[in-house]
Design a protein that fits this description.
The protein is mainly alpha-helical. The relative contact order is 0.10.
């Protein structure tokens, strides 16, 4: 904590420590995992949106290609949960011919 005039300024780690516990505790680790999963889902949604916009497609047009409503495409682009089969259908509809999942030391697997 740093005193700035009459205000107290806390670092992000101090705030997280206060609300979720120190790094390495189960509650803090669970929070960090949820944040990482949300960031990955957001990045996936942004990739879908970028590919769609590069092809000058509306959400409705992309939805029609895979048989879902525009609202479902909107949810995917916002990073809400997406299954691998849905992800496969979306990216194949956008012309992404193949994709793989990097499992680190286990290796890579083809998704489609």
């Amino acid at each position: 904590m740093e005193q700035v005039g009459k205000f107290k300024l806390y670092s992000m780690d101090e705030v997280l420590d206060e609300h979720f516990g120190k790094k390495g505790t189960p509650r803090r680790d669970a929070h960090e995992e949820r944040v990482a999963a949300s960031v990955h889902a957001y990045q996936l949604g942004e990739a879908i949106k970028k590919a769609r916009l590069q092809q000058n497609l509306t959400q409705e047009e992309l939805g029609a290609r895979i048989g879902v409503q525009r609202a479902q495409i909107s949810r995917l682009e916002k990073g809400y949960s997406i299954s691998i089969p849905t992800m496969s259908r979306v990216f194949q509809a956008l012309g992404v011919a193949s994709a793989s999942l990097d499992l680190g030391t286990i290796g890579k697997i083809a998704l489609w």
